[in-house]
Hints:
Layout: H1 9-15, H2 20-25, H3 37-44, H4 48-61
Amino acid sequence: MDCDLETSIPDWIIEHPQTQRVFDALELDTSCGGKSLEYVCHHCGLSPQDVLEKLRLVVNKCQ
């Protein structure tokens, strides 16, 4: 799966377990009811693009 802004947080964690620490550090709810990463970021006042960049950095480090 190619995770992006439309992917839910639980799906990100299933596909890339190492992203859990990013979600924890940003205090994002990891059981967001299937809402997209973009939706959750907007509702938490975070830049979706910034969060996506952090997630991709973590994913790329582990490959």
